[in-house]
Design goal:
globular, seven-stranded mixed beta sheet, about 25% helix, alpha+beta, three-stranded antiparallel beta sheet, about 300 residues, binds fe (ii) ion, about 20% strand
Length: about 300
Amino acid sequence: MPVSIRPLHEVFTGEVSGVDITRPLSKDDVAALEAGMDKYAVLVFHGQAITDEQQMAFSRNFGRLEDARGGNVTRPEDKRLGTGMNDVSNLGKDGQPLARESRQRLFNLGNSLWHSDSSFRATPAKYSLLSARIVNKKGGNTEFADMRAAYDALDDETRREIADLVCEHSLMYSRGSLGFLDYTDEERQAFKPVLQRLVRTHPVTGRKSLYLSSHAGGIVGQPMPEARLLLRDLTEHATQPKFVYVHKWTLHDLIIWDNRQTMHRVRRYDESQPRDMRRTTVAGDAPTVAQQAAE
Ligand SMILES: [Fe+2]
């Protein structure tokens, strides 16, 4: 059965059928999925019961996997999943939900803020692939926002104003906005701000998008409160319901999203119940802007 994609939303997000990702894909299938990603920016697959190895193998069709180091405060000895997998569950190494006061849990709550994965890295991520291994009965939806449609809807004056702006992104900005402020010296070093263009152009389609993220906490050359207000206004604009697709997870769903063209966030859920979501991340090609002066 050939790959087919049906739209799930007015401006983006497609639902894929005709693909079994537990098996190697043909070149044509991979090309069809890449083209689908360029068009829809988010692709939803159902009924994909996969292992971590199968998820990593499928992800590598789209590029090399990103090195996950420096993206969280989980100590290596506390990690539940192997190299190459990002743990976006609420579970500890023992498979049980993390304690309420767990530093790991409190840091990970930052995923409830609108963001683009790895925008805090000098070379930010291309795609993320999220596989649902245990889902919540209630809550825990993931929401996606189309940053191309958001850009298209800006007025000319705003487009001119932001065309060449460069932002500073750090995990300390997103977590700091929730009052998570205590870091070790090593974490401060690992989470040092990087620079990202505020407007990105997609390498294949040429479409422009707003490159926003809760990790963005400053704009080069602007006083801080002014920068934060502009980022806040743009984020409010970009996450209006008309640009947002809400995904209610079913067991064994898999979603791929393009971090260059979208933001996402997870909604609150009952954290006494297990939620096992596993992410692989396809690395981006290059920084969005030369890295300098970011301290
Ligand atoms: Fe994320």
